[in-house]
Amino acid sequence: MVDKQRILIVDDDANIAELISLYLMKECYETKIVGDGESALREFPSFKPNLVLLDLMLPGIDGYQVCRELRTVSQVPIIMLSAKGEIFDKVLGLELGADDYITKPFSMRELLARVKANIRRNEMVAAAGAAAPLGGQRIEHGRIVIDVDLMIAYKDDHPLELTQREYELLKFLASQPGKVFSREALMEHVWNYEGYVGDVRAVDVAVRRLREKVEDNPAVPQFIVTRRGLGYYFNA
Known about the structure:
Elements: E1 6-10, H1 14-26, E2 30-34, H2 37-47, E3 51-55, H3 63-71, E4 78-82, H4 87-95, E5 100-103, H5 108-131, E6 138-141, E7 144-147, E8 152-155, E9 158-159, H6 164-174, H7 183-189, H8 201-214, E10 224-227, E11 231-234
Parallel strand pairs: 1-2, 1-3, 3-4, 4-5
Antiparallel strand pairs: 6-7, 7-8, 8-9, 10-11
Helix pairs in contact: 2-3, 4-8, 6-8
């Protein structure tokens, strides 16, 4: 019997949390509901969720702090939920390590699509790492080298401290140097959102974070370059 994938729901609105839980259980997920940040951090190690649905406005420790602390111990996908729709809130959540952001009210179909995409991406990364033989396929562009099997990127022979998303973004762009990809295309290919239509700000945040780790001068990027009005490309 295959173990069910587990989702930790962190929301102080009991009605919304229960509705989400019932819908996800109908889709064969195992869920646990907690109503505050302290409980989320306490339950996380024992529940071992495959994904966290995290409301921003929580009593006590807010969702931002919970996200920050979870990121110090795990790369589990985190989807932030909030009634707030301001740009600042979205960007801050993504900067702290959230993988996705959904603004309330949202449809359960949209939520399920995001949940599936984020879990699928995480599983693909884990499977690739488990199956990788030592020293295999490499993408080499001068100072930037990516060991695809080991999932490690190097600059000037020094390994880069990249998150999974940053690594995937760099690998995808570097595998097709010079080709410009729109934000929507990157959401589809790197974030695994098929036919994505919606907020693409997550791409800009990921690019900015990646540039801070890859570029000599992030303000004047040499590797991850913007084609104004079109998207991004890797300059080999």
